[in-house]
């Protein structure tokens, strides 16, 4: 007779398991059992094997829905300061690029983050992580990139790692030293190239040695790093055994996604300006396409990401918040589900896939999390909804009833 730690009955389950051909991989009138932090059994309730009913705590779901808990695969949630003043500037007609060129934008957050202590950054990050956690997020990727010097970049990554240790949410960290050209290098003749050398020779080896990052990212853009500089950083990252990702085709098409595909990146992110040859390249390399509707919305972008082409070439689509102070100060993964559907016309099923299975793929952790399958970590949520589409349909009244992380019921 199986021994389980907990059992949920009278639920409907959107497993998001690709092997289940039902929409959302759904199992109706289902049950799910957990043992040692993992999913031990999932299926139709009337097919439950005999189990030790006296010794197993049983939760009744009253016909509500369980899904894998959410994964936000692209955030910049460790930072100090606010950019509300730039928001006002933009509303008075100054563009995001113009603000960046004038030394504002990312650099203004760099100045605030350099001055902040680890404890201050931790406290700011903790509140933001709590906001995501309340909406059923149990895995978050956090990027550095508001330090642009060794001390501050490592400070940010340490804070991100500490957040993961002290919070039930798992944190995947990404080193984004190549986010912008720091003020110290800005006015030098070959400043960007020199800074790239500094990243490769000084920062990356430290980040790798101290095991501060799971992945490395670069902002490949006209206002940031060109293709050649991007390739150098990503190649060096791979030599340190780190996974790679890319901010690409956000404002212009620099060919970043094709490069990312060639180097075997896990994901390319933003991609409003991605064209069909780029889509084909990432389709072939198995690179995920992360759409960030918060940044699209907040920057009042009009160029839509090539969703039809991504579908045509079967590219796994990921939906993330990109939570950051400049382009997406929107700390809500659930809001992104709604925006991905309304702004980009993803189906609610595609949007949910983008914050579960495909999000796990974009972080290289899909063997462990992202779907409800026997043997995977028991990370799931019980929602007060009548159908999984409601997660994308409505926003503002948080429907999250229960969060289970590695088999533990989390109280928040
Ligand atoms: O993902 N595109 C580059 N980086 C961030 C924005 C950073 C900022 O404006 O502070 C993004 O949108
Ligand atoms: Fe970003």
TrEMBL record:
One of its GO terms (molecular function) is iron ion binding. Binds 1 zinc or iron ion per subunit. Residues 65-406 form the Amidohydrolase-related domain. N-formimidoyl-L-glutamate binds at residues 146, 324, 326. Its cofactor is Zn(2+); Fe(3+). InterPro entries: Amidohydro-rel (IPR006680), HutI (IPR005920), Metal-dep_hydrolase_composite (IPR011059), Metal_Hydrolase (IPR032466). It catalyses: 4-imidazolone-5-propanoate + H2O = N-formimidoyl-L-glutamate. Its EC number is 3.5.2.7. Fe(3+) binds at residues 74, 76, 247, 322. GO terms for cellular component: cytoplasm. It is found in: Cytoplasm. It comes from the Bacteria. 4-imidazolone-5-propanoate binds at residues 83, 146, 179, 250, 327. Pfam families: Amidohydro_1. Pathway: Amino-acid degradation; L-histidine degradation into L-glutamate; N-formimidoyl-L-glutamate from L-histidine: step 3/3. Its main location: cytoplasm. Gene3D superfamilies: Metal-dependent hydrolases, Urease, subunit C, domain 1. Zn(2+) binds at residues 74, 76, 247, 322. GO terms for biological process: L-histidine catabolic process to glutamate and formamide; L-histidine catabolic process to glutamate and formate. Keywords: Cytoplasm, Histidine metabolism, Hydrolase, Iron, Metal-binding, Zinc. CDD domains: Imidazolone-5PH. HAMAP family: HutI. Catalyzes the hydrolytic cleavage of the carbon-nitrogen bond in imidazolone-5-propanoate to yield N-formimidoyl-L-glutamate. It is the third step in the universal histidine degradation pathway. Belongs to the metallo-dependent hydrolases superfamily. HutI family. This is Imidazolonepropionase. It comes from Parashewanella curva.
């Amino acid at each position: 007779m199986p021994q389980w730690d907990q059992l949920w009955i009278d639920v409907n389950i959107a497993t998001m398991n690709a092997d289940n051909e039902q929409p959302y991989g759904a199992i109706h009138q289902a049950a799910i059992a957990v043992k040692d932090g993992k999913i031990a059994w999932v299926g139709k309730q009337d097919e439950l094997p005999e189990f030790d009913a006296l010794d197993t705590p049983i939760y009744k779901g009253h016909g509500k829905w369980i899904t894998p808990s959410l994964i936000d695969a692209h955030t910049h949630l460790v930072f100090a300061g606010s950019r509300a003043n730039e928001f006002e500037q933009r509303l008075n007609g100054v563009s995001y690029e113009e603000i960046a060129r004038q030394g504002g934008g990312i650099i203004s957050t760099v100045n605030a983050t350099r001055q902040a202590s680890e404890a201050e950054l931790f406290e700011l990050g903790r509140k933001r992580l709590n906001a995501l956690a309340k909406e059923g997020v149990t895995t978050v990727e956090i990027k550095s990139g508001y330090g642009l010097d060794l001390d501050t970049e490592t400070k940010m990554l340490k804070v991100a790692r500490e957040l993961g240790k002290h919070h039930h949410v798992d944190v995947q960290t990404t080193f984004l030293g190549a986010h912008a050209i720091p003020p110290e290098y800005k006015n030098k003749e070959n400043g960007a190239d020199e800074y790239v050398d500094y990243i490769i020779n000084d920062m990356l080896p430290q980040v790798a040695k101290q095991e501060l990052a799971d992945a490395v990212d670069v902002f490949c853009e006209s206002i940031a790093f060109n293709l050649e500089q991007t390739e150098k950083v990503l190649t060096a990252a791979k030599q340190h055994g780190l996974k790679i990702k890319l901010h690409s085709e956000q404002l212009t098409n620099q060919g970043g996604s094709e490069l990312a595909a060639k180097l075997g990146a896990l994901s390319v992110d933003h991609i409003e300006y991605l064209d069909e040859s780029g889509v084909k390249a990432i389709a072939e390399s198995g690179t995920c396409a992360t759409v960030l509707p918060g940044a699209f919305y907040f920057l009042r972008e009009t160029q839509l990401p090539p969703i039809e082409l991504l579908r045509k070439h079967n590219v796994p689509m990921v939906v993330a918040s990109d939570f950051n102070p400049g382009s997406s100060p929107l700390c809500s993964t659930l809001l992104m589900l709604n925006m991905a559907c309304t702004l980009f016309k993803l189906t609610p099923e595609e949007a949910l896939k983008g914050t579960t299975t495909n999000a796990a793929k974009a972080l290289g952790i899909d063997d462990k999390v992202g779907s409800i399958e026997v043997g995977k970590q028991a990370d799931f949520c019980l929602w007060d909804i009548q159908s999984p589409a409601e997660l994308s349909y409505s926003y503002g009244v948080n429907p999250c009833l229960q969060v289970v992380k590695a088999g533990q019921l989390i109280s928040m």
